[in-house]
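Quick one:
INPUT:
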């Protein structure tokens, strides 16, 4: 349950929750995400309605992975460039936070490669965040996170879901 404690702290820092405890479903998701981060689960798909902390937990997960494995390369894909930018910005805010810096003193964003949506750690890991329609050819990754691959207005478009995004809201591969 170590990731659960980190996620709660991260969610509070990112202003995603105000409570001092996680709801049971969020705690369970954190346990599953920890198994993923440890490599004991290779694929994890989460499908929940909007405003159930999927993206916020995925942001914490990226921070957690970079904290434990600062050399890890992480690719995040979202349905829009704007959402990909918001995701990457939140990860940067988390990694720069005082509590994160104390918890993971070896994980820092390198000064010489610190673009908003494509940054590298001093250990040569990092995050590349892009739209699903953007070009990611040639970008390798140890972890791939797909967050909101399609807009909510297309929730009932089965052909679009099958052709473009699959049947999940968030997929970790």
């Amino acid at each position: 349950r170590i990731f659960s404690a980190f996620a709660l702290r991260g969610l509070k820092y990112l202003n995603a929750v105000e409570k001092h405890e996680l709801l049971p479903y969020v705690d369970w998701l954190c346990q599953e995400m920890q198994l993923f981060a440890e490599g004991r689960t290779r694929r994890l798909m989460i499908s929940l309605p909007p405003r159930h902390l999927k993206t916020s937990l995925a942001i914490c997960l990226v921070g957690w992975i970079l904290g434990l494995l600062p050399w890890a390369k992480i690719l995040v894909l979202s349905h829009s460039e704007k959402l990909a930018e918001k995701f990457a910005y939140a990860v940067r805010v988390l990694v720069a936070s005082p509590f994160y810096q104390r918890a993971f003193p070896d994980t820092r964003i390198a000064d010489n490669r610190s673009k908003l949506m494509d940054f590298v750690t001093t250990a040569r890991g990092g995050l590349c965040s892009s739209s699903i329609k953007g070009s990611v050819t040639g970008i390798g990754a140890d972890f791939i996170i797909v967050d909101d691959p399609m807009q909510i207005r297309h929730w009932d478009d089965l052909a679009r879901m099958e052709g473009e995004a699959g049947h999940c809201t968030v997929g970790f591969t």
